[in-house]
């Protein structure tokens, strides 16, 4: 039996004249098709990181990923392929496309024209999902700290409890996952395990972290409203500025915070709590949450 090829890519979009949405469609000479940019998963790579890398390699464009769109499967000349897709916004200071080993042409199309240009029906299915997705929505990322040392193994104060070996490895890989979202601000609980989860990422992204007790378990236990109000304030800040904001906190805090932020929405909230290193990416409409994506902890 032929092994399934895992791949990832995206629907790359920009605002054209009169704010009309335009999509990037590439021609791949190897397959002689018109498709959305995508490519094979490298060993040890996360799918979302693969999508980010492959889009930039095939188009040369600077991008920021948005909502997850879905998965398709089809038979290619290389074998059966399973592809995951995200929306991908072209940044204002983006580079230009140049022909490369994967794509020799790139054309911009409106949604109706793109539907006609695409070779595969499966790509048209992803296009339909994109059209209905909150691809223009600002994002609030709720990240649970990486794996920490067990409480039973730590004799000092809980706020000082550090990451264990697995958590340290997860923290080192956070940047590879979250660089794709164009984060502008990072807020973290003052607990050591939260700070150590994001500090490497803040240095690489050159973002000064905002460290606050309002995101800590201790504050949540003493005054739940103080923690929950902080989360609502960050959601409103993301809405008004359009910036992507990441907050790092704890399992008791994050599910309640998601409930508060999503109060006016009719979405079904995730049934499972976040595992260490997992996150929710919350896509925010003017008054309600439009989509919630789950980002698993980095593979180590």
From TrEMBL:
Alphabetical UniProt keywords: Hydrolase
One function term, GO molecular function aspect: bis(5'-nucleosyl)-tetraphosphatase (asymmetrical) activity
SMART domains: PGAM (SM00855)
InterPro entries: His_Pase_superF_clade-1, His_PPase_superfam, Nudix_hydrolase, NUDIX_hydrolase-like_dom_sf, NUDIX_hydrolase_CS, NUDIX_hydrolase_dom, Nudix_hydrolase_domain
Biological processes annotated in GO: AMP biosynthetic process; ATP biosynthetic process
Domain (Nudix hydrolase): residue spans on this chain: 3-132
Name recorded for this polypeptide: Unannotated protein
């Amino acid at each position: 039996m032929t092994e399934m090829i895992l791949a990832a890519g995206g629907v790359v979009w920009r605002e054209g004249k009169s704010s009309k949405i335009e999509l990037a469609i590439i021609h791949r000479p190897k397959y002689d098709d018109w498709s959305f940019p995508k490519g094979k998963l490298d060993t040890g790579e996360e799918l979302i990181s693969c999508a980010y890398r492959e889009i930039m390699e095939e188009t040369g464009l600077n991008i920021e990923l948005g909502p997850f769109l879905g998965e398709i499967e089809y038979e290619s000349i290389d074998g059966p392929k399973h592809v995951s897709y995200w929306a991908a916004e072209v940044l204002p200071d983006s580079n230009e496309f140049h022909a490369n080993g994967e794509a020799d042409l790139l054309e911009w199309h409106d949604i109706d024209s793109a539907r006609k240009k695409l070779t595969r029906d499966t790509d048209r299915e992803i296009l339909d999902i994109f059209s209905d997705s909150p691809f223009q929505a600002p994002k609030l990322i709720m990240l649970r700290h990486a794996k920490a040392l067990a409480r039973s193994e730590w004799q000092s104060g809980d706020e000082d409890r550090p990451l264990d070996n697995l958590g340290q490895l997860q923290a080192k890989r956070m940047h590879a996952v979250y660089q794709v979202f164009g984060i502008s601000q990072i807020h973290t609980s003052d607990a050591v395990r939260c700070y150590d989860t994001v500090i490497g990422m803040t240095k690489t992204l050159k973002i000064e972290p905002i460290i606050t007790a309002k995101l800590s378990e201790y504050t949540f236990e003493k005054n739940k409203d103080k923690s929950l109000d902080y989360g609502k304030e960050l959601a409103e800040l993301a809405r008004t500025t359009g910036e992507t904001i990441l907050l790092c906190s704890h399992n008791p805090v994050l599910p309640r915070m998601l409930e508060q932020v999503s109060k006016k929405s009719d979405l079904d909230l995730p049934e499972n709590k976040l595992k260490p290193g997992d996150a929710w990416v919350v896509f925010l409409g003017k008054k309600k949450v439009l989509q919630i994506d789950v980002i698993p902890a980095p593979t180590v």
